[in-house]
Amino acid sequence: MGVGVVLWAALLVAATALHAGFQLTVTALTYPALVEVEETRFARAHALHSRRIVPLVALVYGTVVVTCLGALVTAPGAVAVWVAAAASAVAVLVTALRAAPLHGRLGRHGPDAALLTALTRADRVRTAAALAALVAAVVHAAGF
After folding, report:
1. Which of 48, 62, 84, 91 has its CB 3.0 to 4.6 Å from that of 129, i.e. a possible disulfide?
2. Angle between helices 113-142 and 100-109 (to 10 degrees)
3. pLDDT at position 4, please?
4. Sign of the torsion formed by the C-alpha atoms of 12, 17, 22 and 27
5. Beta carbons of 26 and 123 less than 8 angstroms apart
6. Cα–Cα distance between 26 and 19 in angstroms, integer?
7. Are the C-beta atoms of 122 and 101 separated by less than 8 Å?
8. Which helix (H) or strand (E) is 27 found in, with range?
9. pTM attached to this predicted model
10. Rounded Cα gap, residues 78 and 129, in angstroms
């Protein structure tokens, strides 16, 4: 591997690890806490969560997108890079097409059990995708 490939491979591992850690935190801590908020406090708790998480999502997803693109440009024939990029894209698309609209509905309608269940299911898909991306990035960086 050339220097550029090695650099982007290392950055890809770091970015996908950041993303996987973020998703695991949301799955294991953030959403369970949100589900347990009393109905009378839910609107405020959800609004605070939404305001606080958006900058972090932008940072994490932006980092993943940039590093996937950099790794794809420097190693366009590396299957593991394509897998990492595709898995990361799944997480981003599930967020944009499923989780964000569900959060919007929760913000308008309150703690609906069906919406919260759908949100946690979407989140599990994002977490699995982020973990798959991390594994692929490590495989690429290790040179397999």
Report:
1. 91
2. 160
3. 85
4. positive
5. yes
6. 11
7. no
8. none
9. 0.94
10. 18
